[in-house]
Amino acid sequence: MVKVEFLGPIQKEPIEVDVKNLKELKEVLNKDEELKEWLRVSAVGVNDKIVTNLDTPLKDGDRVVILPPVCGG
Amino acid sequence: MVEIYKGGIPVIEVLDRWYSEFKDGYGAMIPFIGIVRRDKGIDGLSFDLYLPMLNEWFKKWENLPDAKIVMAHSFGDVRVGESSFLCAVFTKHREEGFRYIKEFVEDFKANAPIWKYDLVNGKRIFAKDRAKILKGAGLLED
């Protein structure tokens, strides 16, 4: 299973999903209407590294984080 | 590693410690103190941060060959008049110090995984209008 965490202002508890890559995860997450708006503006981290390729494979135990727009300081 | 504080940062205490610890060999220490300012009815700001990626982001700034950069940030609620972000750049000369402090703070604003909320009547309201979209965002957009 892959654990997905939603950071900062995304009001959603972590979930565990059975997916083989980010493309499959994209399909799962887009079923959630409230999440869609966030996905449009959020970056994606796999095991705490930002990724930019949908073909990024995911294996059992991987952790995905969804990072909405940032504002520190 | 980024120094993390629950609530406002004890500015002078931290700057004093950094000054004593790192001044040797440097000719300039340039601090930047971010202050929560009084603004349109807010009682303060509140912050969430994601520490693993914050420290990962900071790595490229803490290992510069010609400068020492240190930073602290708050999580949770920070009241008006308190500091939520503090950093300092140590360099041999002022010119590269001024350059680094600007580059560092701009990179921080654009890329550090931190989320800011206005505190209004005890409620946290995400500061959406001031937030910056990260590089690579929208990867999972349908």
Explain this structure to me?
- The complex is a heterodimer of chains A (73) and B (142).
- With 73 residues, chain A is an alpha+beta fold.
- Chain A has a single domain, classed as Roll (Ubiquitin-like (UB roll)).
- In chain A, 23% of the residues lie in helices and 27% in strands.
- Chain A has a 5-stranded mixed beta sheet with strand order 2-1-5-3-4, with no helix packed on it.
- In chain A, strand 1 and strand 2 form a beta hairpin.
- The longest helix of chain A is centred in the middle third of the chain and has 9 residues, at 33-41.
- Chain B is an alpha+beta fold.
- Chain B has a single domain, classed as Aldehyde Oxidoreductase, domain 3 (Alpha-Beta Complex), CATH 3.90.1170.40.
- Chain B contains 3 helices and 7 strands, in the order E-H-E-E-H-E-E-H-E-E.
- Chain B has helices spanning 11-22, 51-62, 94-111, and strands at residues 3-6, 28-35, 44-49, 67-79, 83-91, 114-120, 123-126.
- In chain B, strands 1, 2, 3, 4, 5, 6 and 7 form a 7-stranded mixed beta sheet that branches.
- In chain B, strand 6 (114-120) and strand 7 (123-126) form a beta hairpin.
